[in-house]
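Internal tracking record. Fields below are filled automatically when a chain is submitted to the structure queue. Please do not edit lines marked as system-generated. If the sequence contains nonstandard residues, flag them in the REMARKS field before resubmitting.
Queue: standard
Priority: normal
Entity type: single polypeptide chain
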Amino acid sequence: MKSSLPTIRSKRTRRLSLSAACLAFFLAIVEPANASSNMQQVFLTIPADQLPSPELPGAENLDPNPGVPSLLELDSIKVVDASAMALVSIAARQVESARQAEGAKEVARQIIAQKYRWSEKQFTCLDNLWTKESKWNYKARNKSSGAHGIPQALPATKMEIVGTDWRTNPVTQITWGLKYIEERYKYPCSAWSKSKRSNWY
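SYSTEM-GENERATED OUTPUT FOLLOWS
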């Protein structure tokens, strides 16, 4: 009897181990299958008025007729056009006035006051200089050197940096002449002194 006990116990142990293995196999294979067959499908219904809009954000602010300007836009266009036309009109009157010597001097005064802020003494020097050079005549041309216009630019094509209309526009000539004096002599009186010494500036 004593010798048979270990054999009986080992057989029971093997049976228990086999039973445990079978139970584990059943739980792993059979139960999930049963569980999946008993699962219920759940559908979520969202009311139509709560569905997200397919339109882009801010679409309600878009103009339904983008090709047609609004009244506000038309008013803005009118204001811009009116302002532009006013500037063109002023410029045209300025050019026409500068075709005469006194008008050209007044244009030079205005540019000096707005851009260079030179003193009245400096304008007097400028007046002396350009009266000597061209008598403020935008058509003046030196036949020997080719210098042209109120400031007697040499070569005349230098004035293209201000405008291609330098042959006929006295304002272009004045604008270039003042720029030239400021860059080379700083002040008209210095340019006038140079002209008196060398007969050119």
